Amino acid sequence: MVEIDDTLVHTLVAAQFPRWAHLPVTAVDRQGWDNRTFRLGDDLLARLPSAEGYVPGVAKEDRWLPHLARHLPLSVPEPVATGAPGAGYPYPWSVRRWLPGETLAAARDLDRAAVARDLGGLLAALRQVPTAGGPAAGRHSAFRGCHPSVYGDEVEHALDVLGDRVDAAACRAVWARALTTAWPGAPVWCHGDVSAGNLLVVDGRLAAVIDFGQCGVGDPACDLVPAWTWCVGAERAVLRDATGLPADAWRRARGWALWKALVTLASGSGAREEQARVLAAVLADPVAE
To answer: What is the pLDDT of residues 106-124, one digit of tens each?
Structure first.
């Protein structure tokens, strides 16, 4: 990981985009893992990859965000400029339009069923976006959009590490069901990281989706993970119905959610409590049989 702070960002902006050198630079409150984001005045943001593995997302977003924006019902970040390495920072970086709203993770007093319905509509619309020339899912998307079996070794390793701290038999049963089917149609667009931190809310409703660094063209099952990471109870059925995907896609989605919960728990990271809750939801509710 590269150390990134507001001083570095101000230095990069002043050197490469002097017309914005006077704008204040402020780190956003909730930072992601792949990129560090800084408010640049009132209308812009600077977004810098935190490690080399996330660099491909810069050019990919520059190329495809305008295309996606023309077809989606929610706002997406608008590319404004692309920065070059400098001031000791080794990677390209991006300037985007600032989108108003608070993250779904931080929002309160929501009509949660309406949000689940809006999210399902977004995912359905994403599948309809023309894919010609789009990037096939693979390493650049952290294999989101590929078959979940790509992470089979990680699932087994996590289960070995966790031992009797989880119900290994139940986990293996869910994982086995996830591997029995594959996306039968033409590849479609996937966001790749549909988390509550990448969805923006305005006036209690979804208004924007951000961070397309893991997007690609492939199997949309990976985008259904919010059914377990954010939805609760009957909200899952609302999301399921709004997405319009069959039960086999939900079995693979359940595998994606299981994988992330297990590897996070096995890693001992600070998100263990949250992922323990997700794992319990995954094991308890298949959403679609």
So the answer is: 998 899 999 999 999 999 9
